[in-house]
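Example record

Each entry pairs one chain with its bound ligand, adenosine-5'-diphosphate.
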Amino acid sequence: MTTGKLFIVSAPSGAGKTTLLKRVMADLPGLAFSVSHTTRLPRGGEQDGVDYHFVSRARFEAMREQGFFLEWAEVHGNLYGTSRPAVLDQLAKGQDIILDIDVQGAAILRKSAAIPAASLFIAPPSLPELERRLRGRGTDSEETILLRLKNARMEMQAAPDYEYLIVNAELGQAIDTLRAIVIAERSRGHRLPTGQPIAILSEL
Ligand code: ADP
Ligand code: 5GP
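Structure tokens for the complex follow.
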């Protein structure tokens, strides 16, 4: 049975991670997005089951006690967690999975050697540009923006712990870099850019 690969992707909020991931996932087949559970309220346009599974804190804590999460963390005052059964099931089917998780969750998974993973950090070109993007997105309150900017300084300290760093300055270039990393990582696993295993090896 083929086994997929985890792509652990972290970034300070507003760096452009969602924008980059959506573009690269539309280009490259065989990449699934792991839909996390969160206690955060949905932002305008977010759909339950698509962007996140939105749950109460009590429900999240009960699931956590049952060992449902592969990793979990408290970020900007809300709880976020990755579904263990969903990820393990998709990996067993040979599907590659993108985990959009914070620096704490990424550190937990990097320590667990059980699942093959590549880790990527997406950085904004500067803190003033990060603030412009957070404000330009128009989805967060002033209080939330200030909290996210404060946390960004701490999150940037974790960048050297990741295998890859993408500075999202010019969007097109950052998309090209992210796509190239996924394709290169798939080659390390003897797979095609589509994620399919390379059949010729088993035919020799
Ligand atoms: P994140 O998922 O990291 O919180 P988003 O993808 O929501 O960030 O991007 C934050 C804002 O910045 C959005 O309005 C997005 O359109 C914009 N953005 C993303 N990448 C760039 C870029 N390279 N240059 C300018 N604006 C960008
Ligand atoms: P947002 O509220 O902007 O969607 O996400 C806030 C932060 O939570 C981001 O850094 C995002 O990567 C992180 N996050 C989302 N899902 C998870 C998860 O399942 N686990 C962890 N550890 N972090 C998550």
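The helical segments are 17-27, 57-65, 84-92, 103-111, 127-137, 142-156, 171-188, 200-203.
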